[in-house]
Design brief:
The chain has 633 residues and is of the alpha/beta class. The protein is built from 22 helices and 14 strands. It has 4 domains: 116 residues, Signal recognition particle alu RNA binding heterodimer, srp9/1 (2-Layer Sandwich); 179 residues, P-loop containing nucleotide triphosphate hydrolases (Rossmann fold, 3-Layer(aba) Sandwich), CATH 3.40.50; 71 residues, Helicase, Ruva Protein, domain 3 (Orthogonal Bundle), CATH 1.10.8.60; 190 residues, Methane Monooxygenase Hydroxylase, Chain G, domain 1 (Up-down Bundle). The structure holds adenosine-5'-diphosphate and zinc ion. One of its GO terms (molecular function) is ATP hydrolysis activity.
Length: 633
């Protein structure tokens, strides 16, 4: 729990206590409870709920059921301890109001030989009563003043407010030993070089100032999660060996106006006393979001916080050594003012690593793991396009966990591959018992694999398996191409044909009536690709028009021709037509390939049913013995 949460909890408890005291006062039962808990430990019933009339009390007296009487308020109230058959013969404390003028009561008590005691209302009690009557309103008024002060004055109180709500929540390290150095970071060389330069700036400022260079005030790291932004910040702190403040943007976001701003001011005040130093703000988008963009016209608190950040970064005009490092995965929502030169002068994009980057990162994380010789980090990197540094670290960690589970001291290819399969495809299930369905799935998967390897523009087969994973009953993995962002028309068609290959194989081998629901996911993918080819990439007869944008929003409605709705409908029809044409064409191709290669398909299915998994090389060996007719699309 950090300091702020603690403060809030304390504040909450404080209020609860106030309310509690209030309720107890109103209930008027304070007196009774005190009595039961101090004097009579054997009482088990909540006495405040038991009352008795004076008349009944007299009856109790006569019956000899009363054990003890305590008189309060000048004998106007009494707590009677009694036990009777109607009370289940258990001693109970009962409150009795005594009418004014019942002067014989004491006489009676003596007569029946009852143990009694009178508790006078002393001087101190009056004082306490008055004080406690005043206490509640005072607490309320006090807390109202407290909150008003918070919301109005925090911006000028510089964090010296009650309970320190305006203090900076940043963690501070005088000489940080984060355990991370630049050699632990791979695959993001550009960002690393930039940071190495800043370290050298901090270590030998003269070298730079001599030629008139100014130290940058802020560096903004932008990139998807898990790409090593925090890692870079830790490394720079370690290597520069200067004080390091680290904080998450969300820690400045508070309910009360001015607190975030006060915290920013406090952070920069402290930082400027300790120059040169580094201030790392993670998730800076939490404070740096574009102003006035929130729902309902913006959020005053956040805007004040952001304004304060902007002012502070302007404040140290000649940078004396406070370097602000911000990290975000949403540079697009940051306020333009934050990105203006003079604040975050440098923006570094930390992207997903490419193949070489992935090899580098895998090497870094393999350092402390006993990998066997058969593990190829290069192959693993080939299999994992789109993986971030964190994903790769996680992959090797999973492999190590699997090795431990299998009681091994080293990690082999098997564990590494299994870990990759798990992360990409989901956790493996048990294979199907049903012979007929298993055979059908085998044909489906081999259908994908054969079609994929016949097409020149398709990725290579990595592995075929009948072990279910995630939602799929069987899987065919292809080694994905490095650059998934730039695909040609024939690559897209090859994907559609290959994806249809599974279902087509079922159709050809088992006949139309036996086709299963198993291909629904395939069909969805196929339709998606075909639709995008038509509406986004201009790869159909409709021509090079963007009919939908990235978010699948239709853009064509705004083309001003004819009446809008007529136009939209015709275009929508044409889109559907073109999508169908593409898919039909691809289905035909897939059928041709399956029919042409039926012999090898049967053979591979047999092997697959036997071993349940075939890796890419085994598959290619089998295929090599038969001529597969290569197809161009
Ligand atoms: P981000 O801050 O970008 O979300 P992190 O820096 O927190 O990501 O990365 C999480 C973990 O992933 C790191 O602790 C590290 O183990 C691993 N990692 C990420 N990127 C890299 C990289 N480029 N080189 C080595 N390890 C990395
Ligand atoms: Zn399939």
């Amino acid at each position: 729990m950090n300091q702020n949460t603690l403060q809030k909890v304390l504040l909450g408890l404080f209020f609860l206590a106030c309310i509690f005291i209030g309720i107890k006062k109103i209930d008027g039962a304070t007196l009774i409870n005190t009595k039961t808990s101090t004097n009579n430990s054997e009482l088990s019933v909540n006495v405040s709920s038991s009352r008795m009339t004076y008349g009944r009390f007299l009856e109790y007296l006569e019956m000899g059921w009363v054990k003890q009487v305590d008189l309060y308020d000048n004998s106007r109230n009494a707590i009677v301890q009694a036990s009777s058959p109607e009370l289940g013969n258990r001693p109970q404390a009962i409150r009795v109001e005594i009418p004014v003028g019942s002067s014989q009561l004491i006489q009676k008590l003596k007569e029946y030989n009852i143990d009694f005691d009178a508790h006078p209302v002393g001087q101190k009690n009056i004082f306490i009563t008055i004080a406690s009557n005043l206490l509640l309103p005072l607490i309320f008024i006090g807390s109202l003043i407290f909150f008003f002060q918070n919301s109005e004055n925090f911006s000028s109180s510089s964090g010296s407010s009650p309970m320190n709500l305006g203090n900076s929540p940043a963690r501070y390290d005088q000489s940080p030993d984060t355990g991370v150095s630049f050699k632990d970071i791979a695959g993001i060389d550009e960002a690393k070089a930039e940071f190495e330069e800043i370290v050298s700036f901090l270590k030998e400022p003269d070298k730079y100032t001599l030629v008139g260079a100014k130290i940058p005030k802020g560096v903004l790291l932008v990139g998807p999660p898990g790409t090593g932004k925090t890692l870079l910040a830790k490394a720079i702190a370690n290597e520069a060996n200067v004080p390091f403040y680290s904080v998450a943007g969300s820690e400045f976001v508070e309910m009360f106006i001015g607190i975030g701003a006060a915290r920013i001011r406090d952070l920069f005040n402290k930082a400027s006393e300790n120059t040169p130093c580094i201030v790392f703000i993670d998730e800076i988008d939490a404070v740096g979001r574009e102003r006035g963009a929130g729902i309902g016209g913006g959020n005053d608190e956040r805007e004040q916080t952001l304004n304060q950040l902007l002012t502070e970064m302007d404040g140290f005009k000649e940078n004396k050594g406070v370097i602000v490092v911000g990290a975000t995965n949403r540079a697009d929502i940051l306020d333009a003012a934050l990105l203006r030169p003079g604040r975050f002068d440098r923006q570094i994009t930390v992207g997903l690593p490419d193949r070489l980057g992935r090899i580098g990162i895998l090497k870094v994380h393999a350092r402390n793991k006993p990998l066997e010789d058969d593990v190829s980090l290069v192959k693993l990197a080939n299999r994992t396009p789109g993986f971030s540094g964190a994903d790769l670290a996680n992959l090797l960690n999973e492999a190590a966990i699997l090795a431990t589970r299998y009681k091994k001291k080293t990690i082999s290819k098997n564990e590494v591959n299994e870990a990759a399969d798990r992360i990409i495809g989901g956790i493996a299930g048990t294979t199907m018992e049903d012979k007929k369905n298993k055979k059908l799935i085998a044909y489906h998967e081999v259908g994908h694999a054969i079609v994929g390897s016949v097409l020149r523009n398709h990725d290579e087969v990595e592995k075929i398996t009948l072990i279910p994973r995630g939602g799929a009953k069987g899987l065919t993995w292809f080694t994905p191409d490095e650059d998934q962002s730039l695909l040609s028309r024939s690559q897209l068609l090859a994907r559609i044909i290959t994806t249809l290959g599974g279902r087509v194989a079922e159709q050809v081998v088992f006949g139309d009536p036996e086709v299963t629901t198993g291909a629904s996911n395939d069909l969805q993918q196929v339709t998606n690709i075909a639709r995008q080819m038509v509406t986004r990439y201009g790869m159909s007869n409709i021509g090079p028009i963007a009919l939908e944008d990235d978010n699948n929003e239709q853009t064509f409605v705004s083309i001003p021709t004819g009446t809008d709705s007529d136009y939209t409908e015709t275009i929508a029809d044409r889109i559907d037509n073109e999508v169908c044409k593409i898919i039909n064409h691809c289905e035909k191709k897939a059928t041709e390939i399956i029919l042409d290669n039926r012999v090898v398909i049967d053979l591979i299915v047999e092997k697959l049913l036997d071993s349940e998994t075939l890796d890419g090389d085994e598959f290619r060996e089998l295929v090599k013995e038969y001529t597969i007719i290569p197809t161009k699309i």
